[in-house]
Design brief:
single chain, Arginase, Chain A, 8-stranded parallel sheet, 8 helices, 15% strand
Length: 296
């Protein structure tokens, strides 16, 4: 903004994920690209997840860049915050295609993409891009809902059908589930899908071990933030009682990252207007933790 660099220290840092300082925010040097996608056209209950990416980026300004559990500063791999993706309002299919093209291009440049949604239907774009590149891909889904409807509210590409469409591309492993329709239950039985429910006991060490064993060598992680307990993250558009705690989710992600190669991830469905600002901060911490775990 100012040609005189001596004034730089008088202003807040640039608005990027984590307020990452130069040169670690440079695209050419960055290992990770944060991709904000502000879109929620198929939402059927509480809308507003389009505001989630900016809320996460804003909250990330206040996270500590040193991760004491990892004993390092993950941002040093380079984290570039991309501009917001322009929405396509014609159809969810058109928007998914746009995200797919962007992720495919970034992957070809050697970048790991961390997409911030927006509604869950967007995840099909990066899943499709990664499935094309990695024939041994599995999708790990952390979610309160199975999202396995063949069609919902007149579309086969909405947030309620995302994992049905993903399953047409590669195997999926759903975890944290605590809600589904009768038709989805029948589909799960027909396909003999193994679903890991949240339940009263949550996801203990045995469940984590079993989940990891179901994953192939390459893993794409999609996180619908309603997987968390409402006491931790209540800013969601489709809340469900129960859910996972912070350390349950982190323990699972640690095990996956240690034993498999995570090729990309997304975090979706934060609906800031429906809950406290603490929810966005928790999700910003989750995104930074995932970067630290996946990019050593």
């Amino acid at each position: 903004m100012f040609p005189d660099d001596s004034l730089a220290g008088h202003f807040y840092p640039p608005r990027n994920f984590g307020a990452i300082p130069a040169p670690y925010d440079d695209f050419e040097k960055a290992r990770v690209v944060i991709l904000p996608v502000l879109y929620d056209s198929t939402t059927d209950w509480k809308s507003g997840s389009r505001d989630g990416p900016n809320a996460i980026i804003d909250s990330s300004q206040y996270i500590e860049l040193y991760d004491y559990e990892l004993d390092r500063e993950p941002y040093r791999v380079g984290i570039y915050t991309a501009p917001e993706v322009q929405p396509m309002v014609s159809s969810p299919e058109a928007m998914i295609q746009r995200v797919y093209e962007i992720v495919r291009h970034l992957n070809a440049r050697g970048k790991m993409v961390a997409m911030l949604g927006g509604e869950h239907s967007l995840s099909l774009g990066p899943i499709r891009a990664h499935a094309e590149t990695h024939p041994d891909l599995t999708v790990l889904q952390l979610d309160a809902h199975t999202d396995l409807r063949d069609e919902y509210l007149g579309t086969r590409s909405g947030h309620g059908s995302i994992m049905r469409r993903a399953l047409e591309l590669c195997p999926i492993v759903p975890a944290g589930i605590r809600s589904m329709s009768a038709d989805e239950r029948l589909f799960i039985q027909e396909k003999r899908l193994e679903v890991f429910h949240a339940g009263a006991a949550g996801l203990g060490p045995q469940a984590v071990k079993k989940i990891v064993s179901r994953l192939k060598d390459k893993v794409y992680i999609t996180v619908d933030v309603d997987v968390f307990d409402l006491g931790l993250v209540n800013a969601v558009g489709t809340p469900e009682p129960g859910g996972l705690g912070w350390y349950e989710v982190i323990s699972l992600l640690e095990a996956v990252a240690a034993q498999r190669e995570v090729v990309g991830f997304d975090v979706v469905e934060l609906c800031p207007r429906e809950g406290t600002s603490a929810s966005a901060f928790v999700i910003a911490r989750l995104v930074y933790k995932l970067i630290g775990l996946c990019c050593k």
